[in-house]
Amino acid sequence: MTRILHLSDTHLMAAGGLHGGFVDTTAALGHVLESLQRIGSLDAVVVSGDVSEDGTVASYETARALVGEFARARGAVPVFAMGNHDTPAEFTQVLGPVRSVQDVDGFRLVVLDSSVPGRGYGSLGAEQLDWMRSVLAAPAPKGSAVVVHHSPVPAPTVLHDGLKLQDPADLLAALDGTDVRVVLSGHYHHPAAQTYPSGLTALVAPAVANRSDPFAAPGRERILRGHGALLVEVDEAGGAVRSRVLSIPSPGDGEELFELDEETVARIVAESGPGA
User: What are 197-231's pLDDT values in tens digits?
Assistant: First the structure.
């Protein structure tokens, strides 16, 4: 059994920064990890993108220190992916390449970069998918997972639909016939899961920073206080994937932090979406 703690959207900032003007995301990440002290042994701790909010070296150093220490104490490998808020130069300087292959005792984690410079939507492109195919050409002893910030799963809100992965069908086609059992993503700030006829499972982790309300008024984006994670287990024998949503209790859970009206959502999508 391969056990993975799946975190996403930590949105860390340099000292004193508050995400959205409300959330101390460094404290939020520390609280999440402290709440999971009894999680047991792990094989990997994955942060599937938007590691940083401000793109500072300091924010990536915080991620490396906090997640790295937690992972090492449980015999796990820390794995980081790029998100649309991340900056490649600073990410690479502190955390390593924006795409990589990690071997975890025979289980393979293939990390992709779906970010588009200066935009909020995601795209992988033919060259990166060809690279992934070459990596996956030979199966790993215990199977594989793909880590990518933008998910092939449909988005839960209008804003995230406007900033979604643009080539999900290409990603799924490239994974067909490979040993990949699960795709680990973030971006939506809300957990989601989908299974495909091939047997592939796609999982979206809740965010560490806050959570999106999928029942906001039509066209609006409502952000609530809340933190979470996923515990993902992959059975090496049959390839079965199990996941548990880990809701992390904290003061003020569920309170509204802010709400974006229809005009603001439309403007963000126009400025940061694929039509920009």
Answer: 999 999 999 999 999 999 999 999 999 999 999 99
- Domain limits at 102? 2-272
Model pLDDT for residues 165-192, shown as the tens digit of each residue: 999 999 999 999 999 999 999 999 999 9
CB contact burial 145-183 (16+ within 10 A = b; e otherwise): bbbbbbbbbebbbbbbebbbbbbbebbeebbeebbbbbb
Which contacts (CB < 8 Å, 24+ apart) does range 248-253 have?
248/31, 248/32, 248/35, 248/36, 249/35, 250/28, 250/31, 250/225, 250/226, 252/225, 253/225, 253/226
Structure confidence by residue, pLDDT tens digits, 77-121: 999 999 999 999 999 999 999 999 999 999 999 999 999 999 999
**Total domains in the fold of the chain:** 1
End-to-end CA distance of the chain: 44
Which CATH number characterizes residue 91's domain? 3.60.21.10
pTM, full prediction:
0.97
